[in-house]
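Continuing from the previous page...

OK, I double-checked the sequence for Subtilisin-related protease SPC3 against my notes and this is the correct one:
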Amino acid sequence: MGRFYAWLVLAIVAFSSHGRAEDGEDQPGHFTNTWAVEIYGGPDRADLLALDHGYENLGQIGNLEDHYLFRHKDVPHRSRRGAHQHTKRLGDDERIQWVAQQVGRARSKRGPMGQQRRQSDDTRPMTFRDPYWEKQWYLHDTRTSTNLPKLDLHVLPVWRKGITGKGIVVAVLDDGIEKDHPDLVDNYDPDASYDFNDNDDDPQPRYEETNENKHGTRCAGEIAMAANNSECGVGIAFNARIGGVRMLDGVVTDAVEASSIGFNIQHVDIYSASWGPNDDGKTVEGPEKLARAAFEKGVREGRGGKGSIFAWASGNGGSNGDNCDCDGYTSSIYTVSISSASQQGGSPWYGEKCASTLATAYSSGEYKDQKISSTDLHHECTDSHTGTSAAAPLAAGVLALALEANPNLTWRDVQHLIVWTSEYDPLSSNPGWFQNGAGLWVNSRFGYGLLNAEAMVDMALTWKTVPEKTKCEVRIENFQPRDLGNGEEIIIELETDGCRGQNHVEALEHVQVKTTIDYSRRGDLRIVLTSPSGTSTTLLDTRRQDKSQMGFQDWPFMSTHNWGEKPQGKWTLTIEDKSDHAENNGVVKDVVLILHGTPEQPAYQSGGRVYTDYNRVQGDRNVEISAAKAAPAPAADAAPARGSEERIPGSGPFGSAASVVIEEIPEKETEFLVNWQDGMNRYETDFNPVNSGPFEPSADAGSDVYMDAEDLRPWEAFKYLQRQMKSPSGQRHPAHAYNKPSSQYIRDPWVSQNALDKEANLVKYYLQLLGYES
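Thanks. Re-ran it with the corrected sequence; updated structure tokens here:
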């Protein structure tokens, strides 16, 4: 299915100075002949200790002071067994604080099988001579009518303000980038680039017959392809500087990851990463000691203390029943976890659900959907970049625009902006949306919604930095382990006043539950956290592929769903076995609730979030039709929170009168909708829209023939009908084609033009898309 894996390595199995093993969560990979060590006293002391023990000191690990990488020439560079005797000898040396032999696990690239306010009165269409610009449907509004759902990320108004990523540096952590590609070379930044696989300063990818190492070049192009140079397409931040850190095309250890994550943190503003542990539905892995330290140092010291920003792809394991709550990279509080929406405005087949997802950008979907356009290897272009791999770089580009608008944004400011400006409306037809206790719409598949570049930039221009972060840990005194078996549940209640005093949290950001659970079949567990405001969040859903007996060892589940809520009151954690495996058994050994937030409510939250109709926007039309901006809706009172999978906007059966609302649309479209609705409700086998009202061609050859292939109204009417139909159980096959059905739009893999030539075939095609005909 176009999905490919880079079977690389990262893990630690080591003995510390006390002989304690640091084990990874799941299957071991191949041990290397390198050891990460922590030594105080500087490089000379590290050199001396390496010599004493028969090692070569390869130098400091990234930007982590007092951490060095030793290599032993007599140990195989690849082995199934760990050299524990060597680890123990190093650990027994009192001059060495910590040691870990570098080992490995699979890592997957996540393509499947994104001052003063500057105003512009320029509303002229923005066009570019780059050949793939017309294929970049997610960057410019290609609708032919404002009655159709709006697709793009709303970047044209930002560009019209003169904000294009100037002065911002983005590094892509991947398999390298083609630095001499004609659409990247002008924006290439050697100071944001390095090769940690071969230890040199050239990130050029390794070329081989299958072009496996195209991933990083594709991600880089989405962000910073140059504009108007007649090459490929237009980057979302086309004047940003772009670098590549080659780290996925070789043996990737904890040291390699730490070096990459912490590379040149005073120069690089944003790191884009579209990879992670295997999305196989059975792996539980996250960053180890060194990579965790690199994340923490980045947000603490990067960008002059404002913090490095990490845009991370949420994962492509949906078809495997995977859950990104088991991915410690995308569920880190330090990363911006980005999910995907298809061109149809739905969750793609590879999409994963998790409570840590912050927002969504576009990517590929079903076979007929257009994909993402970008640069490709060998100085070529592509219009088939896919997966959450393609969504995260689009998000990195949007964040680059926000940073140009306000370079003083901290890493936490950026996350607050994302939560407050992402759009629920364009994805609202999907199940799973609910309002949290602060009145914010959120979804385990999409986070807080689709990124809106203009809204984020406009808010950034006048942004006031949020208060310093505080952390409140809530424990149960003398917690007694609790047994759990097949079909059983454990309910744990934790009361808190938000740590009133020194670590007081008044307004929530991230919420973590750190727990240790021993269990006979890990994939049968489900964990739900309910806040004092009534927000129920699934921290872990069952995973049918996960048969591991390793359970969770001090694993930090993370949720963004309580953003803006108050933490005071009773939190309820429900841990349950959802299987029919009678032999299941285990024990919950420990639970800690960790509340991250601010000691007072940030100023911007005081009026509550006001949601507007994303479909009615101004200033970013690419065709000559008007689009008036809707008046802001009044702030809604926070609705009672519901379980994250229980709510879908709208009601009534698919195609019923309760689910279709006719607004101000032309008379013929209204007649079309009514006839279609009546026919579907009657389930008449002989119902034929071709002979129904507006579909009936006029006898007058000179009259307006409604089903003419060049007449857009039936297409718009169909799209309007589909957008209004919302059902939690009905069959939905949306086809968000935002141009007319002509050769200008329909390109592979869409249906051929021949399928749309005749009026009857077009109607049949509508019905097929809605699932009424096969």
